[in-house]
Amino acid sequence: MKKLLGITLGIMTALGGFVDLGQIVFTMQAGAMFGYQLLWSIVLGPAGIILYMEMCGRIAVVAGEPVFTIVRKELGSRLGWMTLVASNLLNLITCAAEIGGMAIVLHLLTGWPEKLLLFASTIVLATIMLLLKFKWIERSFGLAGILMVMFAISAFCLKVDWPQMARGLLPLPHDVPANRAALYAFFAVGIFSALLMAYEVHFYSSGAIEEKWKPKDLGENFMVAAMGSILGSLLTVALLVLGTVVFLPRHIFPEILSTTILVGALPFAHRGLQIALLGVLATLAGAAIETALSGGYNLCQFLDIPWGKTQPPGKVKVFTVTWLTMMAFGLLIAASGIRPLVLVNISVVFGMVVLPLTYYPILRVACDKRIMGKHANNVFDKTMGTIFLVLITVAAIAAIPLMIVTHSGQP
Amino acid sequence: MRRRISYIFIITLVLGGCLGCSSGGISVRQEQTEIKSWISLALEIELFVDQLLRQRLNDEFANGHIQYLKGLRDDIRSNEKKHTVEPSSEAMTAANDQIRQLSEVIDLLPTALHNDSLLNNYKSRLERVASELEITLARL
Fold first, then answer.
1. Does residue B62 contact residue B30 with C-beta atoms inside 8 Å?
2. Is the alpha carbon torsion for B59, B61, B64, B66 positive or negative?
């Protein structure tokens, strides 16, 4: 039973992290433009995140060091500060996007004014975070996020071209004209980035310490990382299928959240649509919580001051004030009228840019026998970790130029 | 050594960004992008109307979705104003009439949510608008 509950952390990370606002819209847009041809990037992303989540979980358990303690030690003060500021800015932007998305979903569910729902839902979310213990937050939002399975059921009910889909597993853009090559690359980088968002590893590593994992839990650690990521990626595949089956033949490029949700329940009537809406709401709320808490985790771990959602708020004042501030500023940004999808675009692209600065220290420490002892990376982990770090770095270098050239992925 | 690698990475990023900026203005054909956005919007609304006709949407969702479709229309319009001073071709001028019709349908949708004959009428108008805009796009 305890093991089963432990897996919930992975499910929440997968659904709240993998399938967040960016993932929903970005993946459907990719399907709408290139069909199944970017399926390989959805397979590649989870492989990378499984590898690095397992590594940072193992470091947290063996060395007792969360991600930003490693960043400070490995990158030094100046570069460490830069990484901290950039990561927390991205967390803030992502949090604002998720909060804005929640208000949209609530408006579609209730018909009440969006601005009112924006403020009310943020206050309710912050209150839940203050009142509930870490494990209850993870369980409630993790399990509610499973309603996203509605998208997978819809995708399965529509006509899927399985042989064509299988061809998409190979990174060969066979049907992409030369003038759309940059767009194809932009969406490949975007999907890869959205699947590898740094806040997932920040949250996962901090969660491992919050839940007091021991070295004997390492097997469970790997299972959590793998199961959670695979589940998240299957839902992401469903989103690509929906984009391909519904939008591509109709020449629609979905640019608003409500259109993507409409498609998530296309074969079904009211009930299906409501389940899809509730699923999206749970994943957006989960991602908003993860990004806000990650902001607090990162700052406190970097400054080496007490932190933790399992601690009474009075004992970890800086941590509590930081995540509350993240929520408050996120609310202000969302209330300023900037569309959540614009914010998501920024967070996905710039998130890729910051990624190597977080993943590089993790790989170094995980390979260090002096710190990790017998739990240090073996040859396979080291080789795969290096390959993925190279891929992430190449994607990071390409991300901003591709965003500019393609006007943030406009067809 | 490791910090030097990280700094080299950051410098490479900045250079990459500059490269992207310098090539950004060359590749786009603004008018084509605009027409594609209008076609996509017309077909998106057609899909929505189709779901309304099948009575698969409740009023809260339908009204909210119309509001967001209007927002998208306004965004496309404001992008147009930013980039285009006046229609640069005959084809673009012809497209404006279709765009006006599309805009009209969006404005009329809230009053037609439960009226199948009106919805059917809008559906065929949207199909026509999309196909006319496709023709315009081919001429550009």
1. no
2. negative
CB A239 within 8 A of CB A23: yes
pLDDT, mean over chain B: 82
CA distance B88 to chain A (A): 20
What is d(CA A72, CA A79) in angstroms, rounded to the nearest whole number? 8
Residue A250: HSE in the Cβ half-sphere, 13 Å Cα cutoff: 23
- Taking the C-alpha atoms of residue A226 and residue A54, their distance in angstroms, rounded to an integer, is 8
Other C-beta atoms lying within 10 Å of the C-beta of residue B75: 16
Nearest-CB residue to A405 (from B5, B24, B75)? B24
Q: pLDDT tens digits, residue range A330-342?
A: 999 999 999 999 9
**Could you tell me if A62 and A215 are in contact, meaning their C-beta atoms sit under 8 angstroms apart?**
yes
Measure the CA–CA gap between A50 and A352, rounded to whole angstroms: 17
Q: In this predicted model, what pLDDT tens digit does every residue of A57-75 receive, in sequence order?
A: 899 999 999 999 999 999 9
The answer to whether B23 contacts A405, with C-beta atoms less than 8 Å apart, is yes
Dump the DSSP string for A29-52. Answer: HHHHHHGGGGHHHHHHHHHHHHHH
Contacts of A148 (CB under 8 A, 6+ apart): A15, A19, A235, A276, A279, A280, A282, A283
How far apart are the C-alpha atoms of A77 and A177, rounded to whole Å? 46
Q: What is the ipTM metric for this complex? A: 0.89
* Tokens 């460490």 -> residue: A80
Q: Chain-centre distance of CA A161, in angstroms?
A: 28
A76:B3 CB<8 A: yes
Q: For the whole model, what pTM was predicted?
A: 0.91
Nearest CA of chain A to the CA of B52: how many Å? 10
Provide the residue type at A89 as one letter.
L
With residue B39 as reference, give the H or E element that holds it. helix B30-53
Give the angle A141-B60-B49 at the CA atoms, nearest 5°: 115
CA dihedral A214, A217, A222, A224 (to 10 degrees): -100
Nearest to A211 by CA among A89, A61, A14: A61
Chain B neighbours among A 151-190 (CB < 8 Å)?
Answer: 182
- Give Cβ neighbours of residue B137 (< 8 Å, ≥ 6 apart): B32, B35, B36, B39
